[in-house]
Amino acid sequence: MSEKSEIQLESTNYEPVTEVNIILTSLQQNEENIELHKMNGQENLRSPELKKENSSLRMIVLLELYKRYFNALQISIVFTLYEFFGVITNLTGNIMESRLGIQALLVSGYFIHTVGIAMLCGLQRYWNSWNSSIIIIYATIAQGYSRIAKDLVKLGCKSVIKLATKDDNPQQSIIFKLVTWIVNAKNSVKGVGVFLGAFLLQYMDYIPALFILVAINLMIIIFALIYFDHDLAVSESKKQMTFKEIFDKGRDVNILSMARMFLSGSRDLWFVVPLPLYLIGQVGWPYFSTGALLASWIILSEMIQFITPYLILKPLQIYPVKNGPYCHRDKVAMDVGLYYMANVFGRLVGLILGGVLYYYIELGACLWASVGALIICTIVSFFLGPVSEYQGEQTKS
């Protein structure tokens, strides 16, 4: 048995299994792994290489941590705060938008994203001098900033769909299809970002790319300040929203949010951390090939998501706008926020559970857990009421 395997068995057989102890044991094991590579002359701690957009940044952080001998559990910890901040942002960001408007969300989001990029620029200097614990904490905070920025911008963009498709607009279906295409194109860009992150990590430098991203962010901030109305999506109601009202969106909205929670969690159980680490560590794929596969999967899934409404609704000659009465037009951000908060919470649970299952068992356990989450999602969806119950409510409102 190899020395590395003996270290792993020793840490798992004789230490009491608690959440804190698991993390500490994982960090200690990472330090020992690095020392082993140094002694064997196999240390290859190069500076990380590049990122593009939020998806690229996330892919680069994941691959760079793996390259520096961090394991699946440690990497999952780094992205835990990323998902947790997503829950908080979707919970509070909808209130912020309803009071300040979409412009404030866009400017705030891109500014915070710039701060996160700047933090990752500073990390390059301390890769070899900081211990594993500090690197994980620092990278986790930087990823948290990126998640806040992403959800602030995404929440504002999602709300535009409802605002752009007014019921009395004779070109309602055209506008909806256009906005739907834009939203799904944005989702496909995630796949492009994953591919670029893996590609640039393997072939280009880290810092110059981050500077380019900062420049792009500043350009978008200027564009948003000039061309967006400051009162766009600001709620006309002067009543102060409470957290109870945020969660009290009706039975079907809550059920739909729960179904989305299990659906999003089912993907992150195996896709975000276990699959890329399996392809690189077990199969032996290079970063470029791994990123290409993940990107292809994301783009293909978004294409299916894009055409599904047409496959279902076109034969019935109805459009999703007429069948989407859950949001009140005056408080669209607050209604959308609960749904996406449930989505992010599911990803948070899936990320943590996926990292634990892959670290202690294998990829197969992650896949079986994903199947279980999909079954629960399907069962929960059967409890949704007919849409006709809400058609009249939106008309009255």
Automatic annotation (TrEMBL):
Alphabetic keyword roster: Membrane, Transmembrane, Transmembrane helix
The organism's place on the tree of life at top rank: Eukaryota
TM spans (from-to): 69-88, 100-123, 130-146, 206-228, 269-288, 294-313, 338-361, 367-387
Keyword 4Fe-4S in record: no
InterPro entries from the UniProt entry: MFS_ArsJ, MFS_trans_sf
Protein name: 11695_t:CDS:1
Taxonomic path: Eukaryota, Fungi, Fungi incertae sedis, Mucoromycota, Glomeromycotina
